[in-house]
Write a structure and sequence with these properties.
Layout lengths: L25 E7 L8 H17 L6 E8 L11 H11 L5 E3 L13 H12 L3 E4 L2 E3 L7 H36 L12 E4 L3 E2 L2 E2 L6 E3 L3 H14 L4 H11 L15 E2 L18 H8 L8 E3 L2 E4 L9 H11 L37 E3 L8 E2 L1 E5 L4 E7 L5 E6 H21 L1 H42 L3 H30 L2 H18 L6 H11 E10 L2 E8 L4 E7 L10 H12 L4 H7 L5 H12 L1 H8 L16 H5 L4 H6 L12
Parallel strand pairs: 1-2, 1-3, 3-4, 13-18
Antiparallel strand pairs: 4-5, 6-9, 6-10, 7-8, 11-12, 13-14, 15-16, 16-17, 18-19, 19-20
Helix pairs in contact: 3-4, 5-6, 5-8, 9-10, 9-12, 10-11, 10-12, 12-13, 14-16, 16-17
């Protein structure tokens, strides 16, 4: 049985224009080609006036969606390259709007190829979305007028593209190029320390500095201090910037230094110090300032010096040359810079200047924390910030897993060794067992190494015999490489055997040491590091250090008699163990509640104000810190700890406060 339906009727009258869909939301698309144009009369026309025009047409204010993400974006860019227009396209395809409004068609596109234009037209036609300007309403989906509207829209886009190509680029760009070659400002960002002289005449005469850079006090003095600091820090850019961020010189607020009449200045500097919340420049911008020839009076265009001595210099030539030759690989003429001294932000210090002694038990400390390696020897290295050595656990990928300061480890092993010595001197059986185990372990290791040496030497002789009979180049090369590898193996085994044979002295040391061991134990603090290490090697095989969790370390010693002594340690002052989750939560709660500097230092004794700030910013963000402390002046500096405050000295007689001064909160350095 056939099914019948009503005849399909076109809801749009082909002889009339569609009424405006006042019941559906409307999107207003705003665009400016450059940030310098933002805020001009066109901005008012595209935003305020357009909204008022739509409300007069019948839309409610709540129905009007302002899309203003494309401020400072060229109309020649594609749709996906523009955040605002991409948002408009999404609204069209999701059928959330009925009309797109803009001040003019050229706000949408200046598309010479019209590829993006056709994509936009097709989306509007498919979803029955009209395009509204103050002078015309484009209805691409209209049954009879749609093609005409499409053609008109394309012509408007083509006219806008032609205007950009032939008038802006053909005439105005040429005029701008001419002014640049004359050393005059043409709208580019103005560098710090200068402003633009916009006075055509001065005292009735033509102004020779018209549209040129002139000094802008006090910002030119700030730039001069940047150069002086860079020289003071011996060309270390990173340290110079870090000093600027913490101690200044800071950039004065621009609102507090009004521009004189007839002059112009515009800046994008918005960065603020993490320590003082004052204006600063980034490290990248500092490098650009230190290599910009504008500061010695030259004018550059497209990377080429086109005018020398174009305006007043604010940096002495010798000071500029010092910075320029350390940061620029090319000269001002573009040639390779023969005076270029590659910057070394970190220069290795003299080992003789180290104030802490080397680790006592270097080479004898191991860990089981390396995945896939049951026993890994800890390396030792110098820690500049902590001013002492550290034991570090290195993984298979040659990356550090964790590290611990050597004074902490050495002191714990010293305590375990001292306990062992006390027990050994008292117990006769323990003493005899220590002597016997030392001798037994040495003999077994010597036999193992001697067997390995004989096997390696036999392999060497076999390789020599094979070389006499083989002539194939590849096989000869492989045998030669095997011979070299065996040579290295032999050398390593011989060195190891000599060390083990020297360890026979451990038994002699034990036998000779017993008569005076009681005195050694009694005067342990006077025993030299080297003697402690010899005693350790005589009684112990190795030390084991593991990290069960973030704030716990286990340090144990494997003795030569097969026994093991282990001690579990928790975070101690001056050593960089991680904070617990409860401490992070406590810090966050106090900061968000607006606790003052003294309260935070009291709650976390041993941590400096800088440590607390960097901890919070790294884990919870800079915005939350600024929200709590912006505008509030800190009583103490960044490096002050609780036991350095007046409040601590006032309460020093209080037992609770006196004990808290030895709290265990180390300096914190967030990962980079």
């Amino acid at each position: 049985m056939p099914k019948y339906r009503k005849p399909q009727t076109n809801p749009i009258d082909p002889y009339k224009s569609q009424p405006l869909p006042l019941g559906r939301p409307i999107a207003v698309y705003y665009r400016q080609s450059s940030e310098g144009q933002v805020g001009n009369i066109s901005t008012t026309l595209q935003t305020v006036d357009m909204v008022e025009h739509l409300m007069r047409q019948g839309w409610e204010r709540s129905q009007i969606l302002m899309i203003d993400s494309d401020a400072g974006v060229s109309g020649t860019k594609k749709i996906h390259e523009r955040e605002g227009l991409s948002e408009v396209m999404a609204l069209i395809k999701e059928k959330k709007i009925g009309v797109v409004a803009s001040q003019d068609v050229d706000r949408f596109f200046r598309d010479m190829a019209q590829i993006e234009t056709n994509i936009f037209i097709e989306a509007c036609r498919e979803h029955n979305v009209q395009v509204l300007t103050p002078t015309f309403i484009y209805d691409f989906a209209h049954p009879t007028q749609g093609r005409y509207h499409i053609q008109m829209f394309r012509e408007q886009v083509q006219r806008a593209a032609d205007y950009l190509e032939f008038f802006i680029k053909g005439r105005l760009f040429n005029a701008r190029e001419y002014l640049n070659m004359q050393g005059q400002w043409t709208g580019t960002p103005i560098i710090l320390g200068y402003m633009i002289d916009n006075r055509r005449q001065v005292n009735g005469l033509n102004n020779p500095n018209f549209r040129k850079y002139v000094r802008y006090e006090p910002y030119c003095d700030v730039v001069l201090e940047y150069y002086q600091l860079y020289k003071q820090f011996n060309g270390n850019l990173k340290r110079t910037w870090e000093h600027i961020e913490e101690f200044g010189p800071f950039i004065p607020e621009f609102e507090a230094n009004p521009i004189p009449p007839g002059f112009f200045f515009h800046t994008k500097i918005r960065k603020r110090s993490r320590y003082t919340d004052k204006l600063i420049i980034s490290q990248y911008a500092l490098k650009q300032i230190l290599t910009n020839a504008v500061y010695i009076g030259h004018w550059a265009h497209n990377g080429v010096i086109v005018q020398r001595h174009n305006h007043e210099a604010i940096i002495p030539l010798d000071l500029f040359t010092y910075a320029f030759n350390r940061l620029s690989m090319t000269t001002l003429e573009g040639d390779p810079n023969p005076e270029y001294a590659r910057q070394r932000p970190w220069v290795r210090h003299d080992k003789a200047s180290r104030t802490s002694p080397p680790p006592t038990y270097a080479g004898a400390v191991y860990s089981n924390d390396t995945p896939g390696i049951p026993l890994r020897r800890l390396s030792t290295n110098w820690q500049m910030k902590a001013n002492c050595y550290a034991y570090a656990l290195i993984g298979k990928d040659v990356k550090r897993i964790w590290y611990m300061m050597s004074p902490f480890v050495d002191r714990t092993i010293d305590a375990l060794l001292l306990e062992r010595l006390k027990a050994t001197t008292i117990d006769e059986a323990a003493w005899e067992q220590a002597v016997a185990s030392s001798q037994k372990n040495s003999h077994g290791e010597i036999r193992r190494l001697q067997n390995a040496l004989r096997n390696t030497e036999d392999a060497q002789r076999g390789i020599v015999e094979n070389l006499k009979m083989i002539s194939h180049p590849d096989l000869v090369k492989q045998l030669q490489e095997s011979y070299i590898a065996n040579e290295h193996q032999l050398e390593r085994l011989r060195v190891e055997l000599s060390h083990v044979q020297a360890d026979k002295g451990h038994r002699r040391l034990l036998l000779e040491a017993r008569p005076v061991l009681e005195m050694v134990v009694a005067r342990w603090d006077e025993v030299a590091r080297e003697d402690r290490r010899e005693l350790f090697d005589a009684f112990a095989e190795r030390a084991i250090v593991n990290r069960p969790d973030y704030i716990t370390r286990t340090i144990g010693v494997i003795w030569r008699d097969g026994t093991e002594t282990t001690r579990t340690m928790h975070r101690e002052a001056r050593y960089q163990f991680a904070w617990s989750d409860a401490e992070y939560a406590r810090l966050r709660e106090m900061v968000q509640s607006g606790a003052d500097q003294v309260a935070l230092l009291r709650a976390f004794p041993g941590a400096s104000w800088r440590t607390l700030r960097e901890l919070f910013v790294y884990h919870f963000g800079i915005d939350a810190w600024r929200a709590a402390y912006k505008g509030k002046k800190s009583k103490y500096g960044a490096r002050v700890q609780w036991n350095q405050t007046e409040e601590y000295r006032t309460a020093i007689n209080d037992t609770e406060y006196a004990a808290s001064a030895t709290g265990s909160y180390p300096l914190y350095f967030p990962p980079r």
